[in-house]
Amino acid sequence: MSTPFLEYVVLHCLHKLNGERTIYSIYHLLSGKKSSQTIQDAHLFQLTKFFKTYSSITRNQFDEIVNSLVEQSMIFETGEQYYVVSESGFEALKTTYPFLSFLDGWHFQEGDLFWERLSLLVQVASHLSEHEVKYVPIQRNRHVQAWIKSFLRQCNVPRAKLSRSLYEELIACFTHVSEIDPAVVVIRLTGFQTIGLTEKQASDTLMLEPTLYHYQFYALIHDMMNKIQSNRTRFPLLAIVLSDLQTNVPLTESTKKTYDLLNKGFSLEEIGKIRNLKVNTIQDHIVELALQIDSFDITPFIEGEKIKHIIAAKNKTTSKQLRYIKELVPDTTYFEIRLVMTKYGDER
């Protein structure tokens, strides 16, 4: 299958990485690997919007994309698993896609579940308005089916008016999004005597390359989630769809356990022994905490003077590779540099 837009995404990510991470860090980013390294890199290289935006991608598919970019002379290898963008690659990146400004894979990781709920709700509301109770649910996920029953119990809108109210909220949600045709979502919806299209059918119908369609679909889903989250009173029904979905990004499970022990007063070395993990792994968790919790204090792990020196060194180099900063501040550790880069990476 041809994947020109997905090639563009990989090319864009590779440009951002600037040869400082392996090509497979992009694979982990797109598939949504919840490791401390992938999470930190997503933020450090400003690639959070692409996090978990192609979770179905396989290693073989990714390798095919990389090989295709090499064959087109868009990228070239600088070391084992390290690539940089070529001049022709930079030319390709001059093409811009404004709809990508709506993409936010990091904050809306539960976009798939939002879509499953929304599509089932539209189907149910449509059939209720026609007083039709016999139909096959478009979503087979039992948790989603259980959710719709709960929704109907707590919803204050009369069932006969539910479809119209939901329609009005969706219209409002799609307003002022000229960069994406609402049809990318609308033609996927199933209603009374109307069958929604599959992703492939939708891309064919709209004559969009499949991976371009994929990204337009999720960009619009993320934009909807953002609008609903920002103005719940304007979208009371859709707010219920979003209500218990995690939009404040959670910590990884392992980091949560480390955080609990840290709050009980244990040192990093003690936590490592208790959890039977290397201190380096516990340090990864501390960096994740600094990244995810605005109020997290890093001074118990690094002196104030060192923080100033690392920030000054960071501002002297254009590279995000830690070794360049360490050369300028030799009396610091890589853990301390990562911690400061995570906490104060955008400051100048």
Task: Outline the secondary-structure elements.
Layout lengths: L3 H14 L6 H8 L4 H9 L14 H13 L3 E5 L2 E4 L1 H6 L18 H19 L12 H13 L4 H16 L8 H4 L12 H7 L4 H21 L5 H7 L10 H11 L4 H8 L3 H14 L11 H13 L5 H7 L5 H11 L4
Antiparallel strand pairs: 1-2
Helix pairs in contact: 1-4, 3-15, 6-7, 6-8, 10-11, 13-15, 14-15, 15-18, 16-18
Ranges where pLDDT stays below 50 over 5 or more residues in a row are none
Q: What's the average pLDDT?
A: 91
Strand order of the largest sheet: 1-2
How much helix, percentage-wise, in residues?
A: 55-70%
What quaternary form is this?
single chain
Tell me the span between the first and last alpha carbons. 44 Å
**Integer-rounded radius of gyration:** 23 Å
Strand content: under 5%
Largest sheet report: 2 strands, antiparallel
The total of helices stands at 18
Helix vs. strand class: mainly alpha
Strand elements, count:
2
Order of helices and strands: HHHHEEHHHHHHHHHHHHHH
- Number of structural domains: 3
User: Quick one: overall form?
Assistant: globular
Protein name: RQC domain-containing protein
Organism: Robertmurraya kyonggiensis
Domain Helicase Helix-turn-helix: 254-341
Pfam family, one: HTH_40
